[in-house]
Write a structure and sequence with these properties.
It contains eight helices and no strands. It is mainly alpha-helical. Helix 1 runs antiparallel to helix 2, helix 1 runs parallel beside helix 6 and helix 3 runs antiparallel to helix 5. The radius of gyration is 18 Å and the shape is globular.
Length: about 210
């Protein structure tokens, strides 16, 4: 968990979103598949917003802020748990879900891009491929495992309880990430931030 938060994010947060979103919207709230389609669009929108913002202003997203993105993603599950437990009107709950999903996906995108970029910067050239392949493989394997777990989970446990569980796990991962990043960077954090911003700026200019 401490060494590979991306795997835990996929195992818990991403799996909850992919399995729980259609279940909560169509089964719990009783809304249409068309509205479910809009919810899927909100996930894509959150990812797009995250990617665009980090490409425009990379200096605002240094590697040392990665734990903050995890905290942000974690707290995206709080309104989901509250609204699903409150018995609010279906369209009110749906609106809260859309905002929360967009926010959470944006936070996860921030963390993903910053993390991969930093791996590329700080891994020896002859190991970059191996390290990134291992990291991505672990994250990709975790996703279907999480989907299987939540597939059974939503049949046996209420959605608010599962959302609260995801919130708690994500907060735990965030705390571990804070400790890990403090240990890794210490006083070298400003230099790491500058190097990351310069690299991202250069990559953005080259892409243009």
């Amino acid at each position: 968990m401490e060494d590979d938060p991306a795997t835990v994010v996929n195992l818990v947060a991403s799996a909850f979103i992919m399995v729980g979103t259609p279940y909560m919207i169509t089964e719990v709230l009783g809304l249409s598949n068309q509205l479910m389609g809009f919810a899927e669009a909100s996930l894509a929108l959150g990812g797009l917003i995250g990617a665009v913002l980090i490409s425009i202003k990379p200096a605002l997203f240094p590697i040392t802020r990665a734990p903050r993105f995890l905290f942000g993603a974690a707290f995206g599950f709080l309104p989901i748990a509250v609204v699903m437990a409150s018995g609010a009107a279906p369209m009110v709950a749906y609106a809260v879900l859309l905002v929360s999903l967009t926010w959470t996906m944006a936070m996860c995108t921030f963390f993903s891009i910053v993390g991969i970029s930093f791996l590329q910067m700080n891994t020896p050239g002859d190991l970059i491929g191996k390290v990134i392949a291992l990291t991505m493989s672990a994250a990709n394997v975790a996703l279907p495992a999480g989907q299987l777990i939540f597939g059974f989970g939503f049949d046996a446990i209420a959605a608010p309880i599962l959302a609260t569980f995801v919130l708690a796990v994500m907060l735990g991962v965030s705390v571990f990430a804070v400790r890990t990043f403090k240990k890794a960077f210490g006083k070298g954090a400003p230099a790491a931030q500058t190097a990351f911003a310069e690299r991202t700026d250069a990559e953005g200019s080259a892409a243009l």
